[in-house]
Design brief:
Helices cover about 75% and strands about 0% of the residues. The protein is mainly alpha-helical and about 650 residues long. It is globular, with a radius of gyration of 26 Å.
Length: about 650
């Protein structure tokens, strides 16, 4: 009988792996994390050292974690294939750093460099297929074929299949391989650069928090704060997901972490299974737009726009609060409509006790924000934040050890537990970084081809033609494109591909400020988590709730409506992002809250009490008026909403009735 154990990935269970393979995964993962910590806090490395070495580690991890045989044992043939791919991954990570002088001095690319470049591209595409699905690999292949399609390219016949505006001269294999693997505009470009620096160190920070018990702390704190209210577990899901999502950076990981606690309690309280799973999915999706970490997107956005990371964090606070406020309100309305009660106080933890037990988890977050504010680079901030987590955990364990009475055996056990948790966090951080790093590597292929062929400008012209110059229609096209891309791509990859294609059009042709264009695309890239037919967070919630995946996804889509409305408001009222005269900023803040409340009331048919159909219908033009680029029309829309909500409040007071 084979000695096996289960090797889970961050988001889904992996196949049973031999213990030797699990140990190899652990060793490679720990080595990668230590390399990243060295580069982040001790000795920063150059572009052509940090990025290739990082990718080499990630490729080896990917082929170890995801066998070519899928869930079945590898066998001899499987190991022959994966062994060759692991060797190619090592070669891809080694070649450029080891030969950087020869590559830089060559006037034309050497044949050996081109061959290694082709191997690198192929193993990146295969690793992406295993780690994040076939969709990303197909997109990478489509862009490579597009680069070859032209009179001077490797596949000139493909030019006849493309509209005239998309035609270009075409490129040879040597030229494309050089573009993608021998410079800073392809695989070694900005997306992988961000993944190999900022993103990894903060993913590792989240892993240390998770291993030391931060997840349970945030969940307990949320329950202690909201559990006695109507629909308490659902409201706790919203708050806990905001806390966990801001450090985990993954909506699906957030669902399976907090949802394991919140979804069963929601069902027990009276929420339908699909409703419970949908609420958790919608709340977890918001974690990626919640400061201070915001998943991988904020770091990429900072590099693309050259806006300091701390500025992006600060301007994202209010929109994130709006999103979670909208989900919270919809949850409250659903609880009131269904006549739910809170959980008895005796069954809930107390805020004071929770804080007394886990106060040390707040120290690293405080240190993180403070270091960002004083101007440290995000990578260095992440390094010190990890040090702060370790220091806080050691302090807490030491105080407990002293309180319980120190003994030699206790000291040995404490030291052993500390080492085991540290190694577990180092491995978990590396595992959690595999998917986003592979997405960024393939995104580098897209970036390289777009730069080589000028596709971005051509796409802008197409977008302008399809929308007829109308900004709203252009934004609808962006939503549709984000939904289509989200069916096959993780959020980070969808954001990168979409901003490369539509970003220039939004800024140059439609006058949307650069940072707002990025925020809009980033927010809308999240919709693949909650929008049918492909709602990954919704499916994860359905699995825990034992509900229909499609019904759960529809519920998640309903509760996550702020994901669409808030970015739209950013475009038409840029002062909430860019600032401006204080009265204008306050006015825009007031009307966006009013619009979200009105939208929730119209959607649910309830606010203070039941809402007649005619009031729900009239709320819609009020919401539209608030989004209009005209102060008088905004005021008219706000006045209409206030009148209708006042009527609803008066009716509820005159006719109090049980839900």
């Amino acid at each position: 009988m084979t000695d096996t154990a289960t090797a889970p990935t961050p988001e889904e269970p992996g196949p049973d792996q031999p213990r030797l393979v699990l140990k190899a995964i652990a060793v490679v993962g720990i080595a990668l994390s230590l390399f990243q910590l060295y580069a982040a806090g001790l000795q920063p490395l150059g572009l052509f050292f940090q990025r290739p070495i990082h990718l080499g580690f990630i490729l080896v991890l990917t082929f170890l974690i995801y066998p070519v045989t899928g869930k079945r044992p590898r066998g001899v043939i499987g190991w022959a294939v994966d062994g060759a791919l692991i060797a190619c991954g090592v070669l891809a990570g080694y070649w450029v750093p080891a030969n950087i002088d020869a590559i830089s001095n060559a006037i034309i690319p050497r044949n050996v460099d081109v061959v290694i470049g082709v191997i690198t591209v192929l193993v990146v595409l295969e690793a992406a297929r295993r780690a994040i699905g076939l969709g990303m690999t197909i997109i990478g292949l489509v862009f490579i074929l597009y680069a070859f399609a032209g009179n001077r390219g490797e596949l000139p016949f493909l030019a006849d299949l493309m509209p005239g505006i998309l035609n270009h001269r075409g490129y040879t294999l040597d030229r494309l391989a050089s573009q993608l693997t021998l410079g800073a505009e392809g695989i070694w470009g900005l997306p992988l650069g961000v993944a190999a620096t900022f993103i990894f160190v903060f993913v590792l920070f989240g892993a240390f928090l998770e291993v030391t018990g931060a997840g349970k702390f945030f969940i307990d704190l949320a329950y202690a704060a909201t559990g006695r209210q109507r629909g308490g577990p659902a409201k706790a899901a919203v708050i806990a997901s905001a806390g966990m999502g801001s450090i985990s950076g993954s909506a699906i990981a957030n669902v399976v972490t907090t949802g394991a606690f919140t979804i069963p309690l929601m069902k027990r309280l009276g929420y339908r299974p699909a409703q419970a799973g949908g609420i958790e999915a919608a709340a977890s999706t918001g974690g990626q737009i919640m400061p201070p970490l915001m998943g991988a997107g904020a770091f990429l956005m900072s590099e693309f726009t050259r806006v300091p990371y701390i500025d992006i964090v600060l301007i994202s606070i209010f929109p994130a609060v709006l999103y979670f406020g909208a989900v919270y309100l919809l949850v409250h309305i659903a609880a009131v409509k269904q006549g739910m009660k809170g959980i008895p106080a005796a069954e809930l933890p107390k805020v004071r006790e929770v804080l007394a037990e886990g106060w040390h988890f707040l120290l690293p977050l405080v240190a993180l924000v403070w270091l960002l504010v004083v101007g440290y680079s995000p990578m260095r901030v992440g390094f010190y934040a990890i040090v702060a987590v370790i220091a806080a955990a050691v302090l807490r364990a030491t105080l407990r050890f002293l309180a319980e009475g120190p003994t030699a055996a206790g000291l040995v056990a404490l030291t052993k537990a500390g080492v085991e948790k540290t190694l577990a966090a180092l491995e978990l951080g590396a595992r959690n970084a595999v998917a986003v790093s592979m997405a960024c590597a393939v995104a580098g292929i897209v970036v390289g081809v777009v730069g080589l062929t000028g596709l971005g400008l051509k796409f802008s012209a197409m977008m302008l033609a399809f929308s007829g110059g109308n900004l709203f229609l252009a934004l609808v096209l962006v939503v549709i494109a984000s939904l289509i891309l989200g069916m096959g791509l993780p959020v980070t990859a969808a954001y990168i591909v979409l901003i490369i294609l539509v970003g220039p059009a939004l800024t140059s042709e439609f006058g949307v400020p650069l940072l707002i264009a990025h925020l809009v695309v980033f927010w809308w890239s999240q919709d693949s988590n909650v929008t049918p037919p492909v709602a990954l967070a919704g499916f994860a919630g359905a699995a825990i709730a034992n509900a229909s995946p499609m019904e759960t996804s529809v519920q998640a889509w309903k509760y996550a409506k702020g994901l669409y409305l808030i970015p739209l408001f950013m475009v038409y009222n840029p002062s909430i992002i860019e600032g401006g005269p204080v009265p204008l900023v306050l006015w825009n803040g007031f009307i966006v809250i009013l619009a979200l409340v009105a939208f929730a009331a119209a959607l649910e048919g309830w606010l203070f009490g039941p809402m007649p159909v005619w009031q729900r219908v009239l709320l819609i033009p009020g919401v539209v008026g608030i989004f209009w680029r005209s102060i008088p029309i905004e005021m008219a829309g706000a006045a209409l909403i206030l009148v209708l909500l006042a009527l609803n409040w008066l009716a509820a007071r005159r006719n109090p009735e049980p839900a």
